[in-house]
Amino acid sequence: MLDREGFRPNVGIVLANSHNQVFWGKRIREHSWQFPQGGIKKGESPEQAMYRELHEEVGLRPEHVRILGRTRDWLRYEVPKQWVRREWRSTYKGQKQIWFLLRLVGRDADVNLRATEQPEFDAWRWNEFWIPLDSVIEFKRQVYASALTELARHLFIEPADRIPRWSAELLHPSSASETDEQAQQQQQ
What we know:
Number of helices: 6
Distance between the termini: 56 Å
Order of helices and strands: EEEEHEEEEHHHHH
Oligomer: single chain
Number of domains: 1
């Protein structure tokens, strides 16, 4: 299901533990890591899709988590043509996502990457909140930076303190150049 602009409606999930570390999953048989995410089916709300994807990809149920927040608007990224299936290339542009921040209220042992017959991840770990920005595939970085920045306040995390410099430049290009100019003036 694509919207008129060629974007597939999707949800992204940032799952945090009690130490504000976030779930990071390794895609099955690949070397790439990402947050859980997945498409919204026809007739599903973003919240319903989030709970379905949470179970399909991580094995967790609604009783294992609490919703702390979600992004206000759709966040979009375009997928490079070489990553798009041939039959979709004329219409598919990328993903538009609503992101949810969840608190794990269950235990780590509740995570089950084999909850369904077609697992998405074959390994997982907890990471510090901003670390995923350093290792996610490049075309998703802007969306990850926007989602994490918007959701950080629910965990009382200051975005400016820990966000990598290149991510700050993605989010606020003019403020990054102003900072460079200020630093140069101070050195003179």
